[in-house]
Amino acid sequence: MKAVRIHEPGGPEQLRYEEVPEPAIERPGQVKVAIRAAGVNPVDTKVRAKGPMFAGGLPFIPGCDAAGEIVEVGEGVTDRAVGERVFFCYGGLGGAPGTYAEYAVVDAERARPLPDAVDFATAAAAPLVSITAWESLFDRARLQSGQSLLVHAGAGGVGHVALQMARSQGARIATTVGSRDRIGFVGGLGAEEIIVYTERDFVDATLAWTEGQGVDVALDTVGGATWRRTVEAVAHYGDLVTLLNPGEVDLTEARTRNLRLSFELMLTPQLRGLGEALAHQGTILDQCARWLESGDLRVEVAETLALEQVVEAHRRLEAGGMQGKVVLRP
Predict the structure, then answer these.
(1) Which residues have CB under 8 Å from 229's CB, separation 6+?
(2) Would you list the domain boundaries of the chain?
């Protein structure tokens, strides 16, 4: 089959579109999926640049997200069938093979049923960002109806999904964007206060919106200086969740405010083999499938490229400023 592999860490040019052996079911409980679309995520660019997250993982097929059709079921699989449409987030970190390929073999419980009304490109763009947004807002921060929320980069992959999930929970939402042309997009997803951070200081704007109190919850998708300054925009006894390592920081103000600081890495269950957490993520995807089918969740696909255009896909993602997700089609 055709797939993309990384033989050595480095720039986008390290992504090689080549012929590789087709995967086969190796143990009971697995299914083989013909991949119709694969999502591209920032973590893909990081493992490409830095190398696999598992020892001895080179060469490896990157990619965590996919949607497709089951073409074979292994022994003991009773709740999945050949021809069934599924989507999933698994592999691509240097352990299990990823989704930049024509086929993948995964445990049956990882492959979640996909309604006919949801196209493959949308489904492939959804898993990683949807699980990340859900775990950040509901598992880490325990977001409640009526609470105020600040989401950084609301037009981005995780950000635009988080806006919609927060809206479904009945939260009041502020978000940051990099330019005025994103205002209509994030406003349509539920943002009440939209801060163009190139024009207004986001801390001042957030405090003004909350009458000086700060938000109950903040979701940082940027890290670094943004995370450090966001502390000032969170109310006393509030929650601050980050997707990134903020580095060495002075936590004096966070401590004085009695903030609850949380990290979110949806890859942890795969990296550490946490079965119960993986099952929870499957439940999240089932709910997201229902929302996608009903139209209550919209996952923006910025662009769809052929699998052999993977180098260009990574270059565009790393250039920044993207609205939504990039998807590859084998």
Answers:
(1) 202, 203
(2) 2-126+269-329, 129-263
Place of tokens 């270059």: 315
pLDDT of residue 139: 98
Joined together, the tokens standing for residue 135 give 């775990």
- Positions of the chain with pLDDT lower than 50, given as ranges: none
- Whole-angstrom distance, CA of residue 95 vs CA of residue 15: 17
Query: How many alpha carbons lie under 13 Å from residue 298 in its C-beta half-sphere?
Result: 16
pLDDT at position 228 is: 95
Q: How many Cα atoms occupy the beta-carbon half-sphere of 41 within 13 Å?
A: 31
Contact 154, 189 (CB under 8 A): yes
Structure confidence by residue, pLDDT tens digits, 229-251: 999 999 999 999 999 998 888 99
* 122-155 pLDDT, tens digit each: 999 999 999 999 999 999 999 999 999 999 999 9
Does residue 59 have a cis peptide bond before it, meaning omega lies within 30 degrees of 0? yes
What Å distances lie between residue 268 and 18, 77, 78, 300, CA to CA? 29, 25, 28, 25
Of 298, 21, 323, give the one whose Cα is nearest residue 179.
Answer: 323
The superfamily (CATH) of domain 129-263 is NAD(P)-binding Rossmann-like Domain (3.40.50.720)
Residue-level pLDDT at 320: 85
Structure tokens at 121: 């490109």
CB-based burial label for 140 (10 Å; 0-12, 13-18, 19+): buried
Partners of 150 in the β-ladder:
174, 218
Helix and strand numbers (H, E) in the chain are 11, 15
2-126+269-329 homologous superfamily: Medium-chain alcohol dehydrogenases, catalytic domain (3.90.180.10)
Give me the pLDDT at residue 322, please.
Answer: 85
pLDDT at 221: 97
DSSP 275: H
